[in-house]
Design brief:
The chain has about 190 residues and is mainly β. It is about 15% helix and about 40% strand. Strands 1, 2, 4, 5, 7 and 8 form a six-stranded antiparallel sheet that branches.
């Protein structure tokens, strides 16, 4: 595993791409950008990692039990409960921006990805019980409108995308490990009688 190498840099010379390449290869599916920290004159790597969480509401047990095939007429509240059942990462996970998008979207740069909110930072090795964290989607928000669309058409799959951008510095442990994030949509709906 090792540590992030100590590579000196200045504003005139920027050898930080080598640090970015080493870090990028250590985190599956992530990209890294080498940046010269001018205060310490050492290279850092800004990592961008995207987690993808596919959902089809009709296949979610709590949705199937609650709605049981009835048409949803009104959505009163939407809350995303989350937990981290496994975290063996060697680095802290900074705030993770959460988006909702149609199935097949893999990047938050895609115009169909709609910002929901941020999951707070998670310290390395920290777990959170299922439902231990939550995000409420306020009335009138674009993300809530997207969720309502999928609640009213529960067989249409969609994806939640989480984007975290940790920064690793010289001497830090090389990024490694796994994080298992589970997101559970909960809502209160009005059903026709």
């Amino acid at each position: 595993m090792g540590t992030v190498p100590n590579v000196p840099c200045t504003t005139a010379t920027d050898p930080c791409m080598q640090v970015a390449n080493m870090v990028s290869g250590a985190v599956m599916g992530a990209t890294a950008k080498g940046v010269c920290d001018t205060a310490s004159q050492k290279c850092t790597a800004e990592v961008t990692a995207t987690l993808s969480y596919p959902i089809t509401l009709s296949k979610e047990q709590n949705f199937a039990t609650m709605v049981a095939g009835k048409a949803v007429s009104v959505v009163h509240t939407i809350t995303l409960k989350y937990g981290v059942s496994k975290n063996t990462t060697t680095f802290a996970i900074p705030e993770t921006a959460l988006y909702i998008a149609p199935m097949g979207v893999t990047s938050v740069a895609d115009s169909r990805a709609v910002y929901i909110d941020k999951i707070p930072a998670i310290a390395k090795g920290t777990t959170i019980p299922d439902g231990g964290g939550s995000i409420s989607l306020p009335e009138g928000s674009p993300a809530r409108a997207e969720f309502v669309k999928y609640i009213q058409s529960p067989t249409t799959p969609f994806v939640l995308l989480g984007v975290a951008k940790p920064v690793v510095k010289a001497g830090d442990a090389m990024p490694a490990g796994e994080i298992w994030l589970r997101v559970i949509p909960e809502f209160v709906v009005g059903l026709p009688r």
